[in-house]
């Protein structure tokens, strides 16, 4: 485990490391910068869009720089594919020097599989389990494939974050406003209309005097 | 096999949950036991999954900000701040500097009240209720100040996309300083009662250990990671809001204790020292507070209109009292986001329960589970299954076991 980085690379250099190693496997890369506060110190996010087959190798490459902290894996249904974003951070423990590195892979709807990275970062299994149940993807080689957040009685084949026919059907959504008031309860007290309340108020004041 | 032989068969399984006294929200634990010792631990969260992300993808970001306030009852500002920062980045909004400072001040007050709340819970789990009452009484001072500043004790509703909804005007500074002074004066008392107490030492030292390697491998965050020696604090590492301007150093146990053991005791040390650090951060913020606007755009209709022009994806991060909060937002020119992923700090910390719990005793479960400060909730029933015989242990039973262990150690 590389717990202390040999050298702190700049965000451009980090991108260059991946470009050198994977060539055209890195389809797109960009660096976003955010400056806040009075001092306007920059914080950097690095986004790398890579081929699905390179995911495992890319995480290993990242581990060569610094053992990455995996924040979370997020996912989006973009129509003909499901995109997964692996949000890592490296160089934590360096004052103002941490970068977020997001690896994005696209899983075409015809082949919704992705290799596990839990063999490299055991904690990733938590987020991988969530992606399986929420997006209906298959993480190949996942050490623990059970559901995580969804209840046992949740129907198979329904994936809450999907935007196609496998998403949550309208029949499963309960609109709170449409539920109405239970019939077996007493009628709630009625508010006094404003006009009447205004009339009553001066009378009360007189009584106090 | 006779009935007697069956009874002696080990290991046996104890499920704890889905509701449990040591937690603030339900989670289901299954323990494989050999006598009093835990051989294997497993857990199933999601007992109160509300589908907030699904709800959010059908609402606009101004509405979602108020939804994020309600993700957690204690982290009233962490999620809103992380979410708002993600949206601001997509929309390329420049947040006024004063708003950055107000955000940092309220986030630090949140840390003070959250860590004190946790310290009280920890004391209670050990059977030290006097200390629970003391910490929760002194915590009220922070709650009162938060109410004075935002109007609410919880669900502050202070964050808006592009800034904050309320100014901390200079006439409030004396009240803030008075509150900070109150905690500064208390500091030595709190450190003494928690760190020099014999009972706490006996129950927490070398109990529920998380090694440095495990903390990294299991993606642990916040005080739980720092107590294991992992130097990781979003406020220091990744400048945002006012934090980039301030002098802050991460709190690590070896600086105070001379060594890092990664046990429950170290987690107490880190959290108590962070209360002191928060006092210092609020003071630094008040000293440097720039004047000016507090919100990028006051008219909600104008903000909503901007969402329809927003394209892109961004991450919003914040160091919540329990660790890194991360929100991923993706907008595709519609009023509502295409994707929204909420990563709460406890999401990263739950996996660390397993190495902490394995090898420990039943009576240590409450304090170890509580030691990562899980954001899950509490009630009072535990089912125990022993060779098919099902008995129910109440909150009182489990608590009694924990108190009995303390007594045993004292004898």
Automatic annotation (TrEMBL), chain B:
Superkingdom classification of source: Archaea
InterPro entries: ComplexI_49kDa-like (IPR052197), NADH_Q_OxRdtase_suD (IPR001135), Ni-dep_hyd_lsu (IPR001501), NiFe-Hase_large (IPR029014)
Gene Ontology MF term list: NAD binding; nickel cation binding; oxidoreductase activity, acting on NAD(P)H; quinone binding
Keywords: Iron, Magnesium, Metal-binding, Nickel, Oxidoreductase
SUPFAM superfamilies the record matches: HydB/Nqo4-like (SSF56762)
Domain NADH-quinone oxidoreductase subunit D intervals: 126-381
Pfam family, one: NiFeSe_Hases
Residues that hold Mg(2+) according to the record: 53, 342
Coiled coil, from the record: none
Residues that coordinate or bind Ni(2+): 72, 75, 375
Positions bound to Fe cation: 75, 378
Biological classification of the source: Archaea, Methanobacteriati, Methanobacteriota, Stenosarchaea group, Methanomicrobia
Gene3D superfamilies associated with the record: Cytochrome-c3 Hydrogenase, chain B
Entry annotated with the keyword Magnesium: yes
Cofactor: Fe cation; Ni(2+)
Name this protein carries in UniProt: NADH dehydrogenase
């Amino acid at each position: 485990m590389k717990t202390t980085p040999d050298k702190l690379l700049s965000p451009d250099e980090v991108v260059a490391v991946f470009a050198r190693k994977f060539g055209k496997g890195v389809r797109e890369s960009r660096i976003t910068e955010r400056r806040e506060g009075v001092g306007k110190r920059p914080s950097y996010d690095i986004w790398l869009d890579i081929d699905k087959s390179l995911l495992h190798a890319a995480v290993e490459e990242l581990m060569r720089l610094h053992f990455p902290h995996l924040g979370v894996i997020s996912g989006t249904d973009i129509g003909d594919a499901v995109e997964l974003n692996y949000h890592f951070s490296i160089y934590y423990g360096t004052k103002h020097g941490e970068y977020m590195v997001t690896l994005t892979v696209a899983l075409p709807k015809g082949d919704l599989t992705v290799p596990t990275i839990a063999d490299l970062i055991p904690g990733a299994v938590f987020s991988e389990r969530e992606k399986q149940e929420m997006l209906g993807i298959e993480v190949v080689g996942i050490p623990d494939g059970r559901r995580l957040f969804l209840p046992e009685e949740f129907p198979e084949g329904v994936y809450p974050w999907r935007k196609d026919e496998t998403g949550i059907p309208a029949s499963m959504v309960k609109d709170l406003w449409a539920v109405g008031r239970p019939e077996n309860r007493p009628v709630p007290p009625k508010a006094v209309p404003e006009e009447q309340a205004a009339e009553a108020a001066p009378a009360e004041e007189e009584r106090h005097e | 096999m006779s009935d007697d032989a069956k009874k002696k068969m080990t290991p046996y399984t104890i499920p704890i949950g889905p509701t449990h006294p040591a937690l603030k929200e339900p989670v289901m634990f299954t323990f494989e036991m050999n006598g009093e010792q835990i051989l294997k631990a497993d857990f199933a969260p999601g007992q109160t999954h509300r589908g907030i992300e699904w709800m959010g993808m059908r609402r606009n970001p101004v509405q979602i900000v108020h939804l994020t306030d309600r993700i957690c009852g204690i982290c009233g500002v962490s999620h809103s701040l992380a979410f708002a920062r993600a949206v601001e980045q997509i929309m390329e909004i420049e947040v006024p500097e004063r708003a950055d400072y107000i955000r940092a001040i309220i986030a630090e007050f949140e840390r003070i009240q959250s860590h004190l709340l946790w310290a009280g819970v920890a004391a209670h789990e050990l059977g030290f209720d006097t200390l629970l009452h003391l910490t929760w009484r002194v915590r009220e001072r922070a709650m009162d100040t938060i109410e004075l500043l935002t109007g609410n004790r919880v669900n502050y509703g202070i964050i808006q996309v592009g800034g904050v909804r309320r100014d901390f005007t200079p006439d409030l500074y004396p009240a803030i300083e008075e509150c900070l002074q109150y905690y500064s004066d208390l500091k030595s008392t709190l450190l003494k009662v928690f760190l020099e107490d014999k009972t706490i030492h006996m129950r927490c030292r070398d109990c529920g250990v998380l090694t440095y390697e495990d903390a990294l491998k299991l993606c642990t965050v916040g005080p739980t990671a720092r107590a294991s020696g992992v130097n990781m604090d979003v406020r220091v590492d990744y400048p945002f809001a006012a934090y980039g301007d301030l002098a802050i150093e991460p709190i690590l146990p070896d600086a105070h204790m001379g060594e890092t053991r990664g046990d429950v005791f170290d987690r107490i040390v880190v959290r108590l020292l962070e209360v002191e650090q928060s006092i210092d951060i609020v003071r630094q913020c008040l000293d440097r507070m720039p004047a000016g606007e507090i919100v990028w755009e006051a008219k909600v209709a104008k903000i909503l209109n901007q969402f329809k022009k927003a394209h892109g994806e961004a991450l919003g991060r914040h160091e919540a009292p329990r660790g890194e909060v991360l929100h991923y937002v993706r907008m595709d020119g519609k009023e509502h986001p295409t994707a929204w992923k909420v990563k709460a700090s406890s999401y990263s910390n739950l996996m660390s329960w397993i190495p902490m719990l394995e090898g420990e005793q039943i009576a240590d479960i409450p304090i170890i589970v509580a030691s990562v400060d899980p954001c899950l909730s509490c009630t009072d029933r535990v089912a125990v299954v022993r060779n098919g015989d099902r008995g129910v242990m109440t909150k009182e039973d489990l608590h009694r076991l924990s108190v009995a262990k303390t007594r045993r150690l004292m004898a």
